[in-house]
Design goal:
The protein is an alpha/beta fold. It is built from 14 helices and 13 strands. The strands form 2 sheets. It has a 9-stranded mixed sheet with strand order 5-4-1-8-9-10-11-12-13, with helices on both faces. Strands 3-2-6-7 form a 4-stranded mixed sheet. Helix 9 (about 225-230) links the parallel strand 9 (about 215-220) and strand 10 (about 240-245). The longest helix is centred in the last third of the chain and has 15 residues, at about 330-345. It starts with a helix and ends with a helix.
């Protein structure tokens, strides 16, 4: 991250003595307590200090911006029959693409800040409590006047999604002005991840901040309708490090036929010409294709596991991809980490696997085909 000379001096003092007071810092630097407090506030916004107690970040954080909601999932106990009541079981867990990605990253040990809208209601309180327990940094969340979002999913007996309905009004109303306090954090991030739940104006604002600051940005379109409203954002003057659509979302982003491998490659090429460095297309049970500008597309095989619930698998893929990139892996190997995380996630009934760790991910990867 980019720190001023005075900020680096303060970080050095905090590293030597985390219990040092602002007054003592001011005395040692020949400054004033008021000025030191301003510097400490700036260091917090930049992610160099993690909350109270002057806990220092060993690396710049990932900043994840987008949806947070409560997942309400109902699973049929037998083959689903449309138009009638089906016996089944239901669960309620924290969810939302950005929130899920942030939790996966935090559980993998990557310093992570979440910027999302939470209502001032019991659902919001539950989500915030759970996020803190998972290790997600929440200094810049927005408390909305709208209810906390919900995602209601119907799953068949095999855990595959039949239908889902998302109420994301609070996220829809997250505006650029709500992100002003997080500007320094965003522009000093190690990596920025956005989900398609954001409005086009807000997504454009954040991507412009990232581009101007030289921060790599990854966009997850989330769904076909949301990909449609973000398609115009993909342009050469607003380059992206990566976009992670499925086949249908890729069709929506480009307006091209992607039913064949040739069509898929052509659509990825279109996004490269619109400024996207990596196009990582999820193909479900067929694995994924990673297309990098200037290189031949690569197929990454799926890691097959018995599915308890597929909800959150794509979010785990994206989180592990980002985690591996920051650990120094190339995008192809990072995509393999993503598939390993997805395989672990679908074995769990929760949207984010609660026992996920970097060690578990490495073990899963070692057991998988290359």
């Amino acid at each position: 991250m980019s720190l001023t000379e005075r900020e680096r001096e303060i970080v050095d003092l905090l590293r030597r003595d985390p219990r040092i007071s602002p007054a003592e810092i001011a005395q040692r630097l020949g400054s004033t307590r008021a000025a030191v407090n301003v510097h400490l506030s700036n260091l917090t916004r930049k992610g160099a200090i993690l909350g109270r107690g002057y806990i220092l970040s060993e690396q710049p954080p990932v900043v994840v911006i987008g949806g947070a909601n409560l997942d309400i999932k109902a699973r049929s106990l037998a083959a689903a029959v449309p138009g009638t009541s089906n016996p089944g079981v239901s669960t309620t867990t924290p969810g939302g693409v950005a929130r899920n990605v942030a939790e996966n990253l935090a559980r993998l040990g990557t310093p992570t800040h979440l910027i999302a809208a939470f209502g001032d209601d019991p659902h919001g309180a539950l989500l915030l409590e759970d996020a803190r327990a998972a290790g997600i940094r929440l200094e810049h969340v927005h408390r909305s006047t709208h209810p906390t979002g919900t995602y209601t999913a119907i799953l068949d007996a095999d855990g595959e999604l039949v239908l889902a309905v998302a109420d994301m009004t609070a996220t829809d109303r997250l505006s650029p002005e709500h992100l002003t306090p997080a500007r320094d954090l965003i522009t000093h991030a190690a990596l920025l991840i956005l989900d398609g739940n954001l409005s086009a104006d807000t997504a454009a604002h954040v991507l412009d901040l990232a581009h101007d600051a030289g921060v790599r940005a990854i966009l997850d379109p989330v769904s076909v309708p949301k990909a449609a409203r973000l398609a115009d954002l993909l342009a050469p003057d607003r380059p992206l490090y990566a976009v992670t659509p499925n086949r249908d979302e890729l069709r929506t982003l480009t307006g091209q036929d992607v039913d064949t491998d040739e069509g898929l490659r052509a659509a990825a090429g279109t996004l490269h010409r619109r400024g996207v460095r990596h196009v990582w297309v999820r193909l479900g049970g067929q694995g994924s294709i990673l297309s990098t500008d200037g290189a031949a597309p690569q197929l990454i095989p799926v890691q097959r596991r018995a599915a308890t619930d597929v909800t959150g698998a794509g979010d785990a893929m994206l989180a592990a991809f980002a985690h591996a990139l920051l650990a120094g892996h190339d995008p192809h190997d990072a995509a393999r980490y993503g598939h390993a995380a997805a395989a672990l996630t679908i074995e769990s009934s929760r949207t984010v696997r609660p026992d996920l760790t970097a060690r578990l991910l490495e073990q899963q990867l070692a057991a998988a085909p290359s």
